[in-house]
Each structure stands twice: as C-alpha cells, then as structure tokens.
Design goal:
Elements: E1 3-4, E2 11-14, H1 15-20, H2 22-29, E3 34-38, E4 41-46, H3 49-56, H4 63-68, H5 83-86
Parallel strand pairs: 2-3
Antiparallel strand pairs: 1-2, 3-4
Length: 93
C-alpha cells in the first residue's frame, strides 16, 4: 500500500511493499517521486526517467542526439591548448 509522504516530498512505500507490488510503485511514480523506506528510513527514490534527466541536468543522451539538436551549429568559445603546453621532449635513455 502506498501512503502520502512526509512534507509533500512524494509518496512513501516500505521496501516490503515495494517488493510485493513493484507495479503499484511504478504507477505511483507517474504522479511524482516514490520514496522507498528501509526499516522506516528513506533509502531509495523511484521516479520517471524523464524526470531524472531533467533533475540531473542530463540532456540529449548520446552524441548523435546532441548533434541533431537545432542549435548544434551555434557559436561557442573554443580555445585549444597550445602545443607547448602539452608537448614534452622525448627522453632517449
């Protein structure tokens, strides 16, 4: 059984309830985060992947998806390192 969470931070579910009915947890996560407790203490959070991406700042995913973005050709600052900064003389011992 899923119950309303504390402080409006989501819904809470014990580990036992989660293990017995993961489908219910997934349905509840459609409406917001589900906090899974372990021995009464919050231990895990279940949320939709798109919500996770938004919260973590993840965008696009793969390099191909990022290159397909409309602003892929936008100007940006790029300063490659000078060769003197990365090259070292060879040691021939």
């Amino acid at each position: 059984m899923v119950v309303d969470g504390v402080h409006g931070m989501g819904r809470m579910m014990s580990s036992r309830e989660f293990n017995q009915n993961p489908s219910e947890a997934k349905r509840a996560a459609e409406d917001g985060p589900v906090i899974v407790t372990d021995r009464g203490e919050p231990a895990f959070v279940l949320l939709r992947y798109d919500t996770y991406q938004r919260l973590s700042g993840e965008q696009g995913g793969s390099i191909v998806e990022m290159l397909r973005q409309d602003d892929a050709g936008a100007d940006f600052d790029f300063e490659p390192p000078r060769i003197g900064d990365i090259a070292r003389p060879a040691v021939l011992d």
